[in-house]
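Researcher: Structure for this, please.
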Amino acid sequence: MSATTQIADVNTQWDEGEKFVSVASVIYAYFDGLYHCDVQTFEAVFHPQAIYATADESPMLYRQMDTYFEVISKRESPASRGEPRQDAIDEIQFAGENTAFARVRCSIGQTDFIDFLTLVRVDGRWQIMAKIFHIKKEQ
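Model: Predicted structure, token format:
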């Protein structure tokens, strides 16, 4: 079963517990995409009009999805380097039936990231609409 199919299947349930599980499933698929540098997974979890940004670079780094996916496709994956997978969901909050926020953490190489993910539910499907992140270089 592909990541797209798994996400679509999980996104069909909407009671409160299932809403949480649906958003968490999108986030875990996002972590999979990061760890394997899998553009196909990213295409499933990110809304086509999503944004990617950090103010920790100068000038501020801002990308649309086509540019971000190109960067991911050229990146050597942490999985291929044998890096241990390090990711966690710190919190998920909901603002109504169609908007969610998640604070998540992951590490790639010697760099830790804190991501603020805003998710939207469009046509019954949760997707990441914005990824705003903080870069924390390991000392």
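Researcher: Any notable elements?
Model: The longest strand covers residues 125-137. The beta strands are 46-54, 61-64, 87-94, 99-108, 111-122, 125-137.
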